[in-house]
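QA checklist item 7 of 12: single-chain prediction sanity check.
[x] sequence parsed
[x] length recorded as 133
[x] structure emitted
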Amino acid sequence: MAPGVVTWALDLRSIREYVAVLPAAGPEPEPDIVKLESFRDDAVALVRDGDTALEGGRIDQALSAARAGVQRFRQRRAALGDPPQALRDLSVSLERLLAINVALGRAADADVEKELSEVRGRLSTAAANLPAE
């Protein structure tokens, strides 16, 4: 009977070793922050390209880049919600889009102005809720 006990003990040891290498169940994965930051960097580059184009007198190119930047920041906000940085980035890009429309001699887009007002309001609320440093 002793040999059976020893064999059983060896099986338990091998089971323990097998269980030890199993991955532990963890929390749900977070959104890919690196991907979101890269997305933000691309959007910032678009806005900067628009600024450069505006300074160079290429207003149509500036308008196209500004619209693309606004769209990217809208997508980022949709993915992240309303953290202050996402709101600030969208606010700045909307302001630049309005400025380019003014440079073109166009009336400001009422929808863009309304969105800018809403984003600024949310940004003020978010900033007021931040802990004091």
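[x] summary fact logged: The CA atoms of residues 51 and 57 lie 10 Å apart.
[ ] second reviewer sign-off
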